[in-house]
Amino acid sequence: MGNHWRRLYLDSRLTDDQRLRFDATELAVVLSHYDLGIIESITEFARGSRQSPKVGIVSERGKFLLKRRSATRARFDSVQFSHEVQSHLVATNFPVPRLIPVRGGGRTLLVRRGDAYELFEFAAGSDYQGTLGETHDAGAVLARFHRSAADLVTRNPIPTGDYHDHNGVRTGLRAVESKLTGHEGCEALIAELARAYNAAADRAERRGIKAQPRSVIHADWHPGNMLFRRDHVAAVIDFDSVRVSRRVIDIANGALQFSMPSKGDPAQWPDHLDEDRFAAFLAGYQSVAPIEHGERLCLPDLMEEAMIAECIPPISRTGRFGDCCGFGFLQMIRRKLAWLTGHRDQLVEAVSV
Predict the structure, then answer these.
(1) How far apart are CA 333 and CA 308, in angstroms?
(2) Which CATH number fits domain 3-121: 3.30.428.10, 3.40.50.970, 3.30.200.20, 2.60.40.10?
(3) For helices 247-258 and 132-149, what crossing angle results, to 10°?
(4) pLDDT tens digits for 32-42?
(5) Of 209, 95, 222, 88, the residue nearest 156 (C-alpha)
(6) Phi/psi at 189 (nearest 5 deg)?
(7) Which of 42, 73, 149, 233 is 20 to 30 Å apart from 190, CA to CA?
(8) What is this structure's pTM?
(9) Do the beta carbons of residue 36 and residue 103 sit within 8 Å?
(10) Does the pLDDT value for residue 277 go beyond 90?
């Protein structure tokens, strides 16, 4: 999800009183598995999903971040794969926080009573400010990620799949309609979004997406998953969705997320994308690796698919996107889709520059 989109969603899943937390005994037992030396302070880190508690830790050996993932959400094979990817990236000097191994075994994932724990070096940096320099570097770092992960050799099952032509999106659209009953025009709006999703998927197929290069992809490349310092990416901090698919999936989603004006009330968000940031992101990518001709042709269609796929899960579950009425949010999505459709050729040309 985009930075603002993600916060709208995550920040309303549970109230602050409902935020899941570590208890003192749990922390004592978990931290005993790591060689951190004398611990000086532990502070709740109240960001991200309230269902995955985090704490910041200061010890004589540095600053760290501890995260707990529940058994029902951890998908242990996927987590193990993501840890392999992150450890591989550290070895290539990619800007990713180092995973701290469990004492004695070299493992980076601690499993206790059905929960999974991850301990990272704490990454310092600032949130995305929307500058062209930050945006250009985010594109370049994505290309570095694809290049660095290309020679990964894994011992774990490899997650696959993405938002393109996915029946889960279609099922979610049908579920959305049941959550938004009572809004006049809801049925027509959902039908229009379903047609838009199917049409974009069909166009991407005709433009040859299946023939495009495959690689390890991040699958969630957006500003909220990065920290910045002086117009450069200081750290990429979330690899929960990493998988293998076509790399253009990452390029399209990143181009969308980094060019999305999304401040304030979603009902007031503009129809257009920020074309300067769109061009900067893609120029950054191409400064490291070329974008293939077939990938360029698919980009606008995949951006339309991504826009629909991003908002369906929370609205299909709750009828809302964060604090926003789901119906109003989808009306905004319809407006942006219309802009994308009308500027398809212009966006493809921007990639070719």
Answers:
(1) 7
(2) 3.30.200.20
(3) 170
(4) 999 999 999 99
(5) 88
(6) -65, -45
(7) 73
(8) 0.91
(9) no
(10) yes
